[in-house]
Amino acid sequence: MPIETIADLVGHAGTSVTEAVYRHQLRPVTTKGAHTMNIIFGDSRHG
């Protein structure tokens, strides 16, 4: 999900506050989501 969408959803006027507040929380979620997608669909980097 784009950071702009998250900023809009939480009521921030821009993305700088969103990034400062939520970036540390988004990275693990994004990484776990990517890992799960690799398990489901396969990792195209290795094939």
Keywords, separated by commas or semicolons:
47 residues, mainly alpha, 2 helices, 0% strand, Integrase
Main beta sheet: strand number and arrangement?
A: none
What distance lies between the first and last C-alpha atoms, to the nearest angstrom?
A: 27 Å
Low-confidence parts, pLDDT < 50 over ≥5 residues? Answer: none
Helix content, binned percent? over 70%
| Tally of contiguous helical segments | 2
Structural class: mainly alpha
Order of helices and strands: HH
Structurally, the number of domains stands at 1
Number of strands: 0
Please state the CA-atom Rg, rounded to the nearest Å.
Answer: 14 Å
Indicate the overall shape: elongated
- pLDDT average, as an integer? 77
- How big a fraction of the residues is strand? under 5%
Please explain how this structure is put together:
The protein is mainly α and 47 residues long. The protein has one domain (3-41). The chain is 72% helix and 0% strand. It contains two helices and no strands. It has helices spanning 3-10, 16-41. The longest helix is centred in the middle third of the chain and has 26 residues, at 16-41. The protein is elongated. It starts with a helix and ends in a 6-residue tail after the last helix. The model has no long low-confidence stretch (mean pLDDT 77).
